[in-house]
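Researcher: Next entry in the queue.
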Amino acid sequence: MAMVKKTYMMEDLDCANCARKMQDAVCKLEGVDGCEINFMMQKMIIEYDDENEDKILKQVKKCVKRVEPDCTVLFK
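Model: Structure for this entry, 76 residues:
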């Protein structure tokens, strides 16, 4: 299992409480070793299993949308 650490920018993250909820949800995902969402910087730093990247990023997107439907993670 190859772990990678990547940073993604976020758009329309409206509150620190929402960021904390997203962070907690993402940290619980299988294959995710750690996640930090910085509300002020509008960015997510996530460490995950590179072999399952597509599956994990889809789950991350669902976690974010569940907490704040208008928020977007820029996976580019």
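Model: The CA atoms of residues 37 and 76 lie 17 Å apart.
Researcher: Noted, moving on.
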